Recover the amino acids of this structure.
């Protein structure tokens, strides 16, 4: 059918224009995922065995001492201490994996939904290279002790600037595609992506400005810190994850979103309520009561968009769960979408002062953050990668078995991790 | 100190204003009407409603469905 | 989605009963009475248009309950939107001021002020942040749990004893103003420096109608040295051993 072929051609053109930058983002993101996960493993081991690596391999140390400049062993040992490797882990997975993969998916989604090819993909690729330069420099600085000690903003200001610049270069072209889109309806995923691309520079810029350039005094800095930290999750990663889910689930099963109206409502509810949440990281802190209270109220209000999204995804999937058997993308994305509901509801519950006095500063919080960033965001991104890469490269994945192994090991791993951390955290509290 | 007030006011105006503008833009462009059609925007003739567009590599859906039917297992019956 | 014709409404049933009871409840398409058929069409609801499908009631319920809860929580714990009220349990602006609102003036420079007034301001802030959660903003404590500070002999009599108590805390049963309290008070020697401790001691000796004298940072510093050997919280006997038993007036 001619319409069939014309559509396929259009899709192929769009995909081809995105090929280099998106693959660059994905490849570097996967690299940072591996590196960051390794850091995370070392960090968690160091928590209960601080002499790990130093003590275990004296022969390695003596070997290194013989063949490398003096001070190398101390440097390595120092860089593996918890205080350095934990921020390295956080930044590597957040800015090295999560942000680039999200940007890659966002660029591709924008191109597909706007049905226009990406103009000047070379610039976007250059931005990707710039981002990675920033990452290498930043992680190097962190491992050698130059962290700013502000959670989520540990990179020194000049690295933040590099990342910011790179981000600007990428988002300009995403916006350009939007401006030149084929006329017609703007899909909810486009709303989420445009919003995320609009909010992130404001968040990152304001936070860096108020903490690094013109520092706010005292506890206000903590407020800005957690306003940024939480909104990076909720106004940057969450919209990208939701944009992907709202596209992938209907697209893979071939059925439009159950209630499109609800999805728009969910988007605006998220936009309205999310930004107030940041204070809930500071419950019990020396801050004005109204700030903490409004963050708790907002955290509860988030139940609204989360429930709306959950209803939408579930009703869209209803009657189609058998497709999970056949589609790797769907497995990952549905796992992620369900985790989103779970993580968000858990987060809303953690905001209550009574539960918070038990769980604050414990492993429960870590379990929750990994539920959100791994079980929700990362799983959805995995699903997107499995969908997008064959279309970019024109080649299928090599082994279905490996994909299945990947899925199940991830699923078991994250469930075990979250459960254990949660139980441990409650006991701690 | 006054710098922070300016920053705060500017942020509120820009962000709140952009949200209001976005809603206004969407409403005047008819984004909120014909919602069901909007939901179908992601499909086209090549990937129409009802077609599963992602499978494991090397998986031939038709053969798989036949194989399952022969074995008496449930085949893919979907609600569109 | 197309909707099927709705079942006949009650009004149509009533009409039908007047007409012919035997026709009650049957499908209108089987009726040959043109008036009846027209009635049913007129009473039929309009097909829902795209984009105007009603949201499920359950969802509206969830949203409503969430909003209601949010409002209630906000109303109870809003702290009057005052930047200086840190304790969310402040119930009104007045109570909020008592627990910490007044400390807002501490931001202003206290250049040529009397040192006691300065200490009182600092002491009030320290008290609100650290002590008010147990001893309450009114200094009344809680019956059976936290002893009051108002007109308390521990506060007003021996200064050395008061500072020692602040430094190392107390636990076990204590009699204050005729009532027994069996709780645990944390030690503050690490959390508060000399200036802060002197300020809060001064504050509690002069607030709520107490008329004790001020305590200086030097006294606190001396007491740190003097009582340095005390590693655990005091019990009542040890406290009374400092400067002799409480003299009940």
């Amino acid at each position: 059918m001619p319409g069939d072929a014309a559509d396929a051609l259009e899709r192929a053109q769009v995909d081809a224009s995105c090929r280099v930058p998106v693959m660059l983002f994905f490849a570097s993101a996967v690299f940072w995922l591996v590196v960051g996960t390794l850091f995370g493993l070392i960090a968690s081991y160091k928590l209960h065995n601080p002499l790990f690596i130093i003590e275990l391999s004296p022969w390695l140390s003596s070997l290194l001492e013989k063949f490398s400049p003096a001070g190398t062993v101390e440097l390595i040992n120092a860089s593996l201490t918890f205080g350095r490797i934990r921020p390295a882990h956080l930044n590597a997975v957040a800015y090295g994996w999560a942000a680039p993969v999200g940007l890659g998916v966002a660029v591709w989604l924008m191109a597909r939904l706007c049905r226009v090819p990406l103009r000047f993909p070379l610039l976007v690729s250059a931005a990707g290279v710039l981002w990675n330069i920033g990452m290498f420099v930043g992680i190097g600085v962190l491992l050698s002790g130059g962290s700013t000690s502000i959670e989520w903003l540990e990179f020194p200001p000049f690295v933040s600037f590099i990342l910011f610049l790179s981000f600007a270069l990428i988002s300009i072209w995403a916006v350009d595609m939007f401006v030149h889109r084929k006329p017609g309806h703007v899909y909810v995923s486009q709303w989420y992506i445009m919003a995320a691309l609009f909010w992130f520079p404001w968040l990152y810029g304001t936070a860096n400005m108020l903490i690094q350039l013109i520092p706010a005094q005292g506890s206000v800095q903590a407020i800005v810190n957690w306003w940024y930290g939480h909104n990076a999750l909720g106004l940057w990663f969450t919209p990208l994850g939701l944009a992907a889910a709202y596209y992938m689930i209907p697209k893979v099963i071939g059925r439009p979103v159950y209630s499109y109206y609800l999805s728009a409502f969910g988007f605006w509810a998220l936009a309205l309520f999310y930004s107030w949440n940041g204070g809930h990281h500071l419950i019990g802190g020396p801050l004005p009561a109204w700030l903490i209270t409004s963050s708790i109220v907002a955290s509860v209000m988030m139940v609204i968009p989360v429930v709306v999204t959950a209803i939408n995804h579930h009703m869209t999937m209803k009657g189609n769960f058998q497709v999970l058997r056949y589609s790797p993308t769907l497995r990952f994305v549905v796992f992620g979408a369900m985790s989103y509901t779970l993580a968000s509801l858990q987060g809303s519950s953690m905001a209550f002062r009574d539960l918070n006095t038990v769980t604050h500063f414990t492993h429960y919080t870590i379990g929750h953050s990994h539920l959100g960033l791994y079980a929700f965001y990362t799983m959805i991104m995995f699903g997107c990668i499995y969908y997008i890469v064959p279309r970019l490269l024109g080649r299928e994945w090599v082994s279905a078995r490996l994909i299945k192994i990947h899925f199940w090991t991830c699923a078991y791993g994250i469930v075990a991790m979250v459960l254990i951390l949660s139980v441990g955290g409650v006991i701690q509290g | 100190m006054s710098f922070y007030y300016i920053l705060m006011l500017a942020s509120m105006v820009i962000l709140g204003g952009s949200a209001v503008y976005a809603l206004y833009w969407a409403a005047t462009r008819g984004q909120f009407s014909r919602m069901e059609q909007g939901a179908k925007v992601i499909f086209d003739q090549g990937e129409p409603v009802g077609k599963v567009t992602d499978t494991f590599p090397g998986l031939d859906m038709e053969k798989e469905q036949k194989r399952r039917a022969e074995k008496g297992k449930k085949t893919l019956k979907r609600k569109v | 989605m197309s909707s099927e014709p709705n079942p006949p409404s009650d009004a149509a049933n009533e009409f039908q009963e007047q007409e012919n009871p035997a026709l009650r409840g049957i499908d209108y398409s089987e009726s040959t009475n043109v008036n009846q058929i027209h009635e049913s069409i007129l009473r039929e609801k309009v097909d829902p248009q795209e984009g105007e499908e009603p949201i499920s009631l359950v969802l509206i319920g969830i949203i409503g309950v969430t909003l209601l809860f949010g409002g209630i929580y906000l109303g109870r714990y809003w702290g009057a939107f005052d930047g200086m009220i840190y304790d969310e349990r402040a119930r009104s602006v007045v109570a909020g001021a008592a627990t910490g609102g007044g400390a807002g003036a501490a931001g202003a420079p206290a250049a040529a002020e009397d040192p006691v007034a300065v200490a009182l301001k600092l002491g009030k802030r320290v008290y609100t942040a650290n002590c008010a959660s147990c001893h309450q903003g009114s200094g009344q404590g809680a019956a059976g749990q936290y002893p009051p500070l108002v007109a308390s002999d521990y506060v007003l009599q021996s200064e050395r004893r008061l500072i020692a108590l602040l430094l190392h805390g107390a636990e076990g049963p204590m009699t204050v103003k005729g009532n027994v309290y069996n709780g645990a008070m944390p030690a503050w020697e690490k959390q508060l420096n000399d200036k802060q401790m002197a300020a809060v001691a001064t504050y509690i000796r002069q607030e709520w109608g107490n008329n004790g004298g001020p305590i200086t940072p030097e006294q606190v510093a001396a007491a740190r040295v003097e009582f340095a050997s005390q590693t655990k919280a005091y019990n009542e006997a040890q406290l009374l051993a400092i400067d002799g038993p409480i003299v009940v007036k």
Remarks:
- The two ends of chain A are 64 Å apart (CA to CA).
- Chain A has a mean pLDDT of 87.
- Chain A has two domains: 11-184, 199-429.
- The domain at 11-184 of chain A is CATH 1.20.210.10 (Cytochrome C Oxidase; Chain A).
